[in-house]
Design a protein that fits this description.
Strand content: under 5%
Helix content: over 70%
Number of helices: 20
Radius of gyration: 21 Å
Number of strands: 0
Length: about 425
């Protein structure tokens, strides 16, 4: 029989999943319309890359600076403000025709969305105990890639209906995102506000989704010194840079380098994100059943897999759509699958003792997002100078760097677990 707590857990999970997925409705259109944006407004590839930076720079920096807002003011208010601010910043994007205005609106959008992930992580952390966390965050992580698929598909559909006019490509998603923000405000509450206790989870009396939390704030240096934070941050930096290279340039690569139509390129590019959905959902089960809950070790092997399959995609790209789709799917599964663990469940576990889940998550995710800042101009320059092979060698190298960092984190995690085990044994003997 389903209890009241379980029903509320399910409701919170669904709303938070939709909330974060909706942010991609205002991120993905930029990649889909990039070719049209360049031709209609006579923008070079380097200028198009700078528009990526206009969105991703504030997203990265503000996530680090504002990640603790959910710890201070409650995730409900922070997440509501994020979604409504994002909608207000982008609803008029398609009505303008000046590069500086495009850049300004994208900057405001990136700033508004910066606190979305940390506050989603904190909200889920309130509603689920430690034993549920690995599996729950695995399924929750599908929102990132499910949202990307929906964002791309909606943008492609609107482009086919209204293109080359771009007004509705941003107006309609803005209305959806703003409405989602209102739903979050109306329905998201903490267990403490509702007088509920989560089985297997100690109640935190000072935690609330709508009121400030009285807690000791950690400085950025103190957060960085927490165990595994640097390694997780650098891994996130590498794989996020690769991911956004694929997000922002894969449709153009399929169109220009492999000769697909605009519709084919837009739709086939979502195979990478479909792989991300499968990878995120299945990795949690794999970690629980095959690796005994050792999330750090499971993530390390998965990042290694992303390096292998990304290389395979590049070297077999001339073999046609079926082979392209297979390796895009596998590369997406291994690149995107670790995301909810790096800045989600593992980050929440690290920050929970200091009631700094949002701050730690924001630091790791924000540091990772710094990688996406350089993606636009760097890839644009590489394509113009070296052709499409240059970016792929760059992405393969980055994935390998992430693999090395992750295996270092495995060593740290094993050392910590051995120390905890020995401490438990000594305590029992005493």
């Amino acid at each position: 029989m389903v209890t009241i707590v379980q029903r509320r857990q399910a409701l919170s999970f669904v709303i938070i999943w939709i909330a974060y997925a909706s942010t991609y409705l205002l991120r993905k259109p930029l990649g889909v319309i990039k070719a049209d944006l360049g031709s209609v407004h006579k923008l070079s590839r380097t200028q198009l890359g700078l528009l990526d930076t206009s969105l991703l720079l504030p997203y990265a920096v503000m996530q680090i600076l504002l990640g603790s807002c959910g710890d201070k003011f409650g995730p409900r208010l922070a997440l509501t403000s994020c979604l409504i601010g994002s909608a207000l910043s982008m609803f008029s994007f398609g009505f303008w025709n000046h590069l500086p205005i495009f850049a300004l609106l994208l900057f405001l959008n990136g700033t508004s969305q910066a606190t979305a992930w940390p506050n989603c992580v904190k909200t889920l952390g309130m509603w689920f105990n430690d034993q549920q966390r690995t599996t729950i965050f695995g399924f929750f992580g599908t929102c990132t890639f499910g949202g990307g698929i929906l964002g791309s598909a909606l943008a492609v559909q609107l482009q086919s209906m209204y293109g080359p006019d771009m007004a509705y490509i941003f107006l309609i998603p803005s209305l959806i995102v703003g409405g989602t923000g209102l739903v979050v405000f109306m329905f998201i509450r903490s267990p403490e506000e509702l007088g509920m206790q989560i089985p297997g989870k100690e109640p935190i009396s000072k935690s609330s989704s709508s009121s400030p939390v009285q807690t000791r704030s950690l400085s950025y240096i103190q957060l960085w010194r927490l165990r595994m934070v640097p390694e997780l941050s650098w891994t996130n930096f590498a794989i996020k840079l690769v991911r956004y290279c694929m997000y922002m340039w894969l449709p153009m690569y399929l169109f220009q380098a492999l000769g697909y139509s605009k519709l084919q390129a837009g739709l086939l590019s979502t195979v990478f994100e479909i792989g991300g959905v499968a990878g995120s959902a299945s990795l949690g089960l794999i970690i629980s059943r095959l690796f005994g809950g050792r999330a750090v070790y499971g993530v390390a092997l998965t990042v290694l897999g992303s390096t292998v399959f990304l290389a395979a995609f590049h070297f077999t790209s001339h073999m046609g759509i079926p082979i392209n789709c297979v390796f895009m799917f596998l590369a997406g599964a291994c690149n995107c699958g670790p995301d909810p663990y790096l800045s989600g469940s593992i980050a929440a576990e690290i920050g929970e003792r200091e009631n700094a889940q949002a701050a730690v998550s924001g630091l790791i995710n924000g540091f990772g997002s710094i990688g996406t800042v350089v993606e636009g101009p760097v890839i644009g320059w590489m394509v113009e100078r070296y052709g499409w092979a240059g970016p792929f060698y760059f992405m393969i190298t980055l994935s390998l760097v992430g693999t090395v960092c992750m295996f270092k984190a495995v060593t740290i995690d094993n050392t910590m677990k051995r120390a905890e085990f020995m401490g438990t044994v000594v305590s029992d003997e005493a």
